[in-house]
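Let's sit down with a protein and look at its sequence and fold side by side. Once you have written the record down, we can walk along the chain together.
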Amino acid sequence: MHDTGGPGWRITMDTSGPMLIALYLRDVAGLAGAGKPSVSHASPKIRQADHSHLTADVGGVAALRTEWEAWWEQLVKAYPETTPELSPPSFSAFINSPALRKVLQAHFGAALTWARERRAEYAQIEAEREASGSTLLVGDLVEDRLLEVGRSSRDFNLRIIELPLNEQRAWYLEPDKMIMSHRLLSQPEVFRSYVQPVVELLV
């Protein structure tokens, strides 16, 4: 996790284990375009599997999409809290989402392995950033804006959730969250183009 702050303001950048698992399940189930925001596919690419037989008696793929979207919305809203709890093998927190529960039971092991690998990659990226000083850009965006407006910052706490996405972009979630490709900071101009307008709103 990276944490930058000043009087009254704070920006944190981190990833999310439950959201990584949710991403894996979305892509393995072929739920393209699901969720708000509808983030791009995970990277590395996850091989899609047909879930029509698995979910046929619990509403099919349409029910799976609806249940996954409700879960994703919950994860985004609750972040950085990790609710609902992922507790194999019963996944009792998903009792009212039978299609999603079946897919969780079928793929949880693979999803967990994939998520752990991505977390290890993210730790490596964080170490490289600290060594190169590239995270200084985050604080610079706020300081530049404060000089521009000639006053101290309004209080804000912006949380940036970094995920392994194949599209190098970010999605702003009002009022104080962003989802971002975990490699975006390595492209300072692109990073700035997404984050600066949000900083201008918040500062």
